[in-house]
Specification:
alpha/beta; 8-stranded mixed sheet; 23 helices
Length: 684
């Protein structure tokens, strides 16, 4: 039959083509990895490296100054899937791609020639597996006058170099198609970290931390489907490392399917490349005429002492219009706010901020009453934001909605309601994680209440246009637990509240004073401090506990026979400098929970602002910050023995003053209020 003959001919043709293509690949392999050009090869091939900063060194392709240094040998041992199965898939897919896409490749080549005469292909030295240099191929999308070996994001006004055809190719990722040949020849894989430039030292070093240089680079990768050009180098390297840890058929399939959309129109391709969002944001900081109309959704507002009040007032001072939708404040028992319990909507202006107070059921103890409080927010606030009364001073919709936290979850429903009505972006500031915050109220993860709020939280998080996180570790949780794309998540730590001057170390009186300041609940695990005080009864130490909360009375009972523990209860912000002045060092503790440990408590910023050493019994983000700042010692959460040992270690240390200075320095570089406000303003 004719079809059998046709299949036979096609099979023979494909077989011949495969043999011929393989022969060419074998001949070209050596040239593609600079085998005959030793001067072009990487002297650090097969080495583990670190980046050593040096301001006197020339700027590399990452915009950083420094160089790479070897710190050992690479010890990666590929498994069966990576070594044989993955390579087999690469060969089949790349050869099939060369055959099927040959008409497309020819058409693109002709278009490039017509648009800007010159070579069709663009080759560039890139970092391959184990840091071996190889020649990466792309369709040329930029003019012949474009500087070579310089990433797009380092170019001044990169648009001026991109050809008309090139702009289309880059937007649809068609410029990457010649890398099918790089896959077939064995220098790349279909799935893997995108190959960095040979002179992107910072990216190379960051990837080495996660083993991302140990595998073949790919045509597409995990970082590409989680943000692509919008990602900063540190985040991109971390995602590449995550892929390497999970490498396997399921992970590769997930990346492959997640990459298909780029051939339509990929908005994450930003001319200017890596971190271009940050450049855009910095530019907006300097645009004096870009004043915004901001609608803020928050659970509490003045007179309660939350940062959101100060943030809103500072935005007004910077020339923005700010209106707040919130509930009634929590006054002491027996004191009612005007209209409390009468379903009354109240408007007032506080220091230039127009505040809309929507009716809320009083927040009291007990899960039923607390849930009633939570649900009163969406019923009143969502109704208000849909009303004609919720408009800016010019009678038009606001430019952006700023949702301060997801606590309670239902409050954010008002932000979503406004977004749906007016199609404006919503930015959320994520101070802690919902529904994980419910654990503080004694709700377990197995409960119906937790599962319900987990479902609601997922729906709300996914509808945010941008989520600003106060702890870098929130990123993995939001991405893994709720499927939030990395390009929607940005790190913006809190600033130190109310304290901006360093408080000098006082002369010792023979007793070392340690202070804990903040909320006192089960989550904070202040009991760890009390147990440590009990073990240190014979030592010259005293513990000062400043704050109130649900666990306060119980802890007072435990510590009733300890004369080295003093409780002060909740104190107003203006009194805190007096307490900080008494302290030789500060304490930060948290319950041993894998998710709660992701949080960076706001007290840490204040501790650093006053320049005090910090002793921690806490895991996760806070531990990393303390160690990175070199401002104290940190043991595991709820580990009393380690806390006691670290307290003794600090007492013996002759570097307490240096630790205090390090803390203050880290605060100035990361948690200073003006720095925070500049970054936040750029998000609007």
């Amino acid at each position: 039959m004719n079809w059998k003959k046709t299949i036979g001919i096609m099979g023979a043709a494909l077989g011949t083509a495969f043999v011929a293509t393989s022969a060419v690949a074998k001949l070209k392999k050596g040239d593609s990895i600079y085998e005959n050009d030793p001067e072009q090869r990487n002297t650090l091939e097969g080495k583990k490296v670190i980046f050593v900063a040096n301001e006197d060194a020339p700027e590399n392709a990452d915009g950083a100054r420094g160089h790479l240094e070897s710190v050992g040998e690479c010890e990666h041992s590929p498994g069966v899937y990576e070594k044989y199965v993955k390579r087999g898939i690469d060969i089949v897919l790349s050869f099939g791609g060369l055959v099927v896409l040959s008409p497309v490749l020819l058409g693109i080549s002709i278009a490039i020639k017509i648009d800007d005469p010159g070579p069709v292909l663009f080759t560039q030295k890139r970092i391959g597996q184990n840091k071996r240099y190889f020649k990466l191929h792309k369709f040329r999308s930029m003019k012949m006058c474009t500087p070579h070996d310089k990433p797009t994001h380092m170019l001044e006004n990169p648009d001026q170099y991109i050809t008309r055809v090139g702009k289309f190719l880059r937007a649809h990722s068609l410029d990457e198609l010649p890398q099918i040949w790089d896959i077939f020849i064995g220098n790349m894989s279909v799935i893997g970290p995108r190959p960095g430039l040979w002179n992107q030292d910072l990216l190379t070093a960051e990837r080495d931390k996660y083993g991302a240089n140990d595998v073949k680079p790919g045509l597409t990768g995990w970082a590409q489907i989680n943000g692509r050009d919008e990602l900063e180098i540190l985040e991109k390297a971390k995602l590449d490392g995550e892929y390497c840890q999970k490498i396997g058929p399921m992970m590769d399939a997930k990346v492959f399917l997640g990459s298909l959309h780029v051939f339509g129109k990929d908005d994450s391709v930003v001319e200017g490349g890596t971190g271009e969002m940050k450049k855009t944001e910095l530019a907006s900081e300097n645009a004096s005429d870009s004043k915004k109309k901001i609608l803020v959704i928050c659970q509490y507002y003045k007179p309660e002492p939350f940062r959101i009040s100060d943030i809103c007032e500072e935005m007004v001072r910077r020339g923005h219009e700010v209106q707040v939708v919130t509930g009634y404040p929590n006054y002491p028992e027996g004191v009612l706010y005007e209209g409390y319990g009468k379903g009354k909507h109240i408007d007032e202006v506080i220091n230039g901020v127009k505040v809309h107070r929507c009716f809320t059921i009083p927040r009291e103890t007990g899960i039923v009453k607390r849930l009633m409080n939570y649900y009163s927010y969406p019923l009143s606030s969502s109704s208000f934001v849909r009303s004609k009364a919720c408009v800016a001073s010019d009678g038009k919709p606001f430019d952006v909605v700023f949702c301060n936290q997801l606590s309670p979850v239902m409050m954010a429903d008002a932000a979503i309601a406004y977004k749906r009505k007016y199609k404006v972006p919503v930015v959320m500031y994520c101070l802690d994680l919902w529904p994980e915050s419910l654990i503080a109220g004694g709700i377990t993860r197995k409960s119906v209440v937790y599962k319900f709020f987990h479902h609601v939280s997922k729906k709300i998080y996914r509808q945010m246009d941008k989520i600003l996180i106060t702890s870098r570790m929130f990123s993995d949780y939001l991405r893994d637990e709720f499927g939030i794309k990395s390009n929607k998540i940005e790190y913006l730590p809190q600033y130190a509240e109310g304290i901006f001057e360093q408080i000098p170390m006082k002369d010792g009186d023979g007793t070392f004073h340690f202070m804990f300041a903040g909320n006192i609940g089960a989550v904070q695990s202040v009991e760890t401090v009390i147990r440590a005080a009990e073990m240190l009864k014979g030592e010259p130490v005293k513990f000062h506990i400043v704050g109130g909360g649900t666990d306060l009375e119980r802890l007072k009972g435990i510590a009733k026979d300890l004369d080295n523990v003093v409780f002060y209860g909740r104190r107003p912000l203006e009194e805190m400098p007096e307490f900080y002045e008494k302290a030789d060092a500060m304490l930060v503790t948290l319950a041993a929970d894998p998710v709660l440990s992701l949080t960076l408590p706001g007290k840490v910023q204040s501790y650093m602002a006053v320049g005090k050493p910090i002793i921690g019994a806490i895991d996760g983000e806070t531990k990393e910050v303390i160690e990175k700042a070199r401002c104290g010692f940190c043991g595991k959460a709820e580990n009393v023995d380690e806390l006691v040992e670290n307290i003794k270690k600090l007492i013996r240390s002759d570097k307490r003053e240096e630790m205090g200075k390090n803390a203050r320095k880290y605060y100035k570089e990361n948690f200073e209020e003006t720095l925070f406000m500049d970054k936040l303003e750029s998000k609007f």
